[in-house]
Design a protein that fits this description.
- By secondary structure, the chain is of the alpha+beta class.
- It has one domain.
- It has a 4-stranded mixed β-sheet with strand order 1-4-3-2, with no helix packed on it.
- The protein has 2 helices and 4 strands.
Length: about 110
């Protein structure tokens, strides 16, 4: 069976997917971006990411990719994933979250129609 293919914005990803992406791309996202043409013929910049069930194209520009890493406390000032990042994960691979869970962490990965 072919994997489901989803084009999605970074902000709409689940916490599980974000954690997996960080582990997959510990040196940041910008050097891994690809460009594709959408159904309207426009060029789109995206980060490819694959799970067991889904092949994602996560829309972001190079400048957005840099800003995401800069704003993320899991990455150091050098733009690389902190060495102790995986220490913050519990045995299920979930990040320990404080009582103030952000709304965005509860968004499920859904296909995005352009």
């Amino acid at each position: 069976m072919a994997k489901k293919r989803i084009v999605i914005d970074y902000e709409k990803l689940s916490e599980d997917t974000l954690i997996s992406m960080k582990i997959e791309y510990p040196d940041g996202f910008e050097d891994n971006l690809i460009t594709f043409t959408n159904k309207e013929g426009r060029f789109i910049s995206a980060l490819p990411f694959e799970t067991d069930e889904i092949y994602y194209l996560i829309r972001m520009t190079e400048s957005e990719a840099k800003q995401i890493i800069k704003d993320d406390d899991d990455f150091g000032d050098d733009g690389k994933l902190r060495d102790d990042f995986e220490d913050d994960l519990n045995e299920d691979g979930q990040k320990y979250l404080d009582d103030n869970i952000d709304e965005a962490e509860n968004i499920k990965d859904e296909p995005y129609e352009e």
